[in-house]
Amino acid sequence: MPTLTLSTDQRRGLRARAHALKPVVSISQNGLSEAVLKEIGVALHSHQLIKIRVYNDDREKRERFLAAICEEHSAAPVQHIGKLLVVWRPGADEDDAAAKRVRPGRRAPRRPKRSFQNEG
């Protein structure tokens, strides 16, 4: 299965969405086992965008894990920062427009605070 490729803007939007996420899968000393790959598949199916924590100090090994995960699940690598991997795969009814949903630097307008001091 081929890995997905993302544009710079898509990757930026997905990184912004992933910032608040907690890791949903961990890869420990046993490495990238079949059970871990299956759990990653379940998480991608449910959430489309996930964080994975890798308990390994070897950066090259983490890079290989990221490549293997993306290859196995037809997903796109979004970010590898420290021991965290961020992976995205569109859902069955989504297309790549979902990656553009959140633009970095744009937030919903705030509602004005309500003052209760001079109400009659």
Helix and strand topology:
Blueprint lengths: L7 H11 L4 E5 L6 H14 L1 E6 L4 H15 L2 E6 L2 E5 L32
**Whole-Å distance between the termini?**
67 Å
Annotation, overall tally of beta strands:
4
- In percent, how much strand structure appears in the residues? 15-25%
CATH topology (fold) name of the domain at 8-90: Translation Initiation Factor IF3
Number of helices: 3
Task: Tell me what the CATH architecture of the domain at 8-90 is.
Answer: 2-Layer Sandwich
Strand order of the largest sheet: 1-2-4-3
Give me the secondary-structure category: alpha+beta
Cα shape: elongated
The CATH homology group name of the domain at 8-90: YhbY-like
The helix-strand sequence is: HEHEHEE
| Gyration radius, rounded | 18 Å
CATH class of the domain at 8-90: Alpha Beta
Mean pLDDT: 84
How much helix is in the residues? 25-40%
User: How would a crystallographer describe the biggest sheet?
Assistant: 4 strands, mixed
Instruction: Detail the poorly predicted runs.
Output: none
Keywords: RNA-binding
Pfam families: CRS1_YhbY
GO molecular function: RNA binding
Domain CRM: 4-100
